[in-house]
């Protein structure tokens, strides 16, 4: 029977990635110490490096993206309402 997949918390992944960034131990040593596969150590380290800039953007980066999504949604709604209004005004003119 196969083993069930283990799910790791973000805190655990961060601890492993930071240990990998220190460079005191090899990837294999870290994998043995934390009882995970060596490829996971490399993957989590890469994810940390790729997403580190997002941590320092704070809420302004996320807020800007969220507000842009809201603007897009509102423009779609305006377009839909304009089409409905034009359709109904044509029906009333008859």
Provide the low-confidence segments as ranges: none
Number of helices: 3
Query: Secondary-structure element order, as H and E?
Result: HHH
Please describe the biggest sheet, giving its number of strands, its sense, and whether it closes into a barrel: none
| Anisotropy-based shape | elongated
Mean model confidence by pLDDT: 89
- Gyration radius, rounded: 25 Å
Kindly name the structural category. mainly alpha
Supply the number of structural domains: 1
Describe this structure in words.
By secondary structure, the protein is mostly helical. It has one domain (10-93). It has helices at 10-22, 27-34, 38-93. Helix 1 crosses helix 3 and helix 2 (27-34) packs across helix 3.
List the helices and strands and how they pair.
Elements lengths: L9 H13 L4 H8 L3 H56 L1
Helix pairs in contact: 1-3, 2-3
Task: Name a few traits of the molecule.
94 residues; mainly alpha; 3 helices; 82% helix; 0% strand
Put the structure in a nutshell.
Helix content is 82%, strand content 0%.
């Amino acid at each position: 029977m196969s083993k069930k997949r283990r799910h790791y918390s973000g805190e655990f992944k961060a601890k492993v990635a930071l240990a990998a960034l220190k460079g005191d131990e090899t990837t294999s040593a870290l994998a043995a110490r934390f009882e995970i596969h060596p490829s996971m150590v490399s993957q989590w380290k890469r994810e940390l490096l790729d997403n580190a800039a997002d941590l320092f953007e704070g809420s302004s980066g996320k807020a800007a993206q969220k507000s842009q999504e809201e603007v897009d949604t509102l423009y779609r709604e305006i377009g839909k309402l304009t089409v409905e209004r034009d359709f109904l005004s044509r029906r009333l003119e008859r």
